[in-house]
Design a protein that fits this description.
This protein is an alpha/beta fold. It has helices spanning 11-22, 34-43, 84-91, 116-123, 126-130, 141-144, 159-169, 182-204, 209-229, 240-251, 256-265, 270-276, 283-297, 302-312, 317-325; strands spanning 3-7, 26-30, 60-62, 74-77, 100-103, 133-136, 150-155, 174-179. The longest helix is centred in the middle third of the chain and has 23 residues, at 182-204. The chain is globular, with a radius of gyration of 19 Å.
């Protein structure tokens, strides 16, 4: 029986741990917060992040890190981007060459501007990095855990490893495709959270469907422009990890990032919004990272630039919309 450790007891890590345990694999869900870990053990559910979904009997819960990865076949990472490096440094000596790592988080580290696969590369051996798989797509935990049909992409440089992960996660309600474009899949997943915040601003200001459609479409152009600059394949952005995830995150009531934008559009400050939230909105730090990278590389990103000013310079969202609409007229594709 395959032994799997899922690191990260948020809604998505918990959902994937349940999915794998229900396929009768030997699964351990690791949560760094010992109090939350104890509570999940007692309640046999994650009342903080995924209330109402009971754990399978075979799902184990722990907050212990010593010997955590001993004899396992797969390590599934579901850790917020700004904490990933610190966690990996604690377990890097336990990662052997045969271990397959599956990263399921989305974001860019602010202090280094590294994608999550690059952070992983910094902390694991070369063979483990070559077998890395990035799992990403339009999959809200709140729906997947109810077994509503969904599709996702497993991206890896190693096609055989991608196929193994495809088989590992696939069920009759969770369909996994494979792809070899790690850069495109990662950047799609990271930048769509930024555009979702802007989309939420549109909702909060009640600007309507036309505005939202224009924002999402132009946002996709910025994602493609940014991604292809760093070597991503253009076709990736028209797939599940690209337009698929972008649509879901920009329109769903489950989207934390869209929620942040909606509250901004209604007049709340970022500090007020984040203080109200239990879960992490990855788009907030990602906007800062992408803004700085785009500025350094001279990549035109008008939506990101305007959104950065709203988030970090307290610019009025109404001014953001006005700035975007009054920019110098251009061709649609540039």
């Amino acid at each position: 029986m395959k032994k799997i450790v899922v690191m990260g007891g948020g809604s998505w890590g918990t959902t994937l741990a349940i999915l794998l345990a229900e396929k009768e694999y030997d699964v351990t869900l690791w949560e760094f917060n010992s109090e939350l870990s104890k509570k999940m053990k007692i309640d046999r559910e994650n009342k903080t992040f995924l209330a109402g979904r009971k754990f399978p009997e075979n799902l184990k819960i722990t907050s212990e890190i010593d010997g955590l990865l001993k004899d396992i076949s797969y390590l599934v990472l579901s850790i917020p981007s700004q904490f990933l490096r610190n966690i990996l440094e604690k377990v890097s000596d336990q990662i052997n060459e045969e271990l397959i790592i599956v990263d399921t988080a989305k974001g860019i580290e602010i202090k280094t501007h590294e994608r999550l696969s690059e952070i992983i590369k910094d902390n694991v051996n070369e063979k483990a990095y070559e077998n890395l798989v990035v799992l990403s797509g339009p999959t809200h935990a709140e729906e997947v855990t109810k077994k509503k049909p969904a599709a996702i992409v497993a991206a890896s440089k190693n096609k055989e490893t991608a196929k193994k992960v495809q088989k590992l996660f696939s069920t009759d309600y969770f369909r996994v495709y494979i792809n070899d474009d790690i850069v495109g899949v990662e950047l799609s997943g990271s930048l769509k959270n930024c555009i979702a915040i802007a989309s939420g601003v549109v909702d909060g200001m009640e600007l309507g469907d036309n505005t939202k459609s224009a924002l999402i479409t132009r946002g996709l152009r910025e994602i493609v422009r940014f991604g292809t600059y760093f070597g991503a394949k253009q076709e990736t952005f028209s797939g599940l990890a690209g337009i698929g995830d972008l649509i879901t995150t920009c329109t769903s009531k489950h989207s934390r990032n869209r929620f942040v934008g909606e509250k901004l559009g209604k007049g709340k400050t970022l500090t007020e919004i984040l203080n109200e939230m239990v879960m992490v909105a990855e788009g907030v730090p990602t906007v800062k990272a992408v803004y700085n990278i785009a500025k350094e590389k001279s990549i035109p990103m008008p939506i990101i630039e305007s959104l950065y000013r709203v988030l970090y310079e307290e610019e009025n969202p109404q001014k953001m919309i006005k700035e975007l609409m009054e920019r110098k007229l251009t061709e649609e594709f540039y």
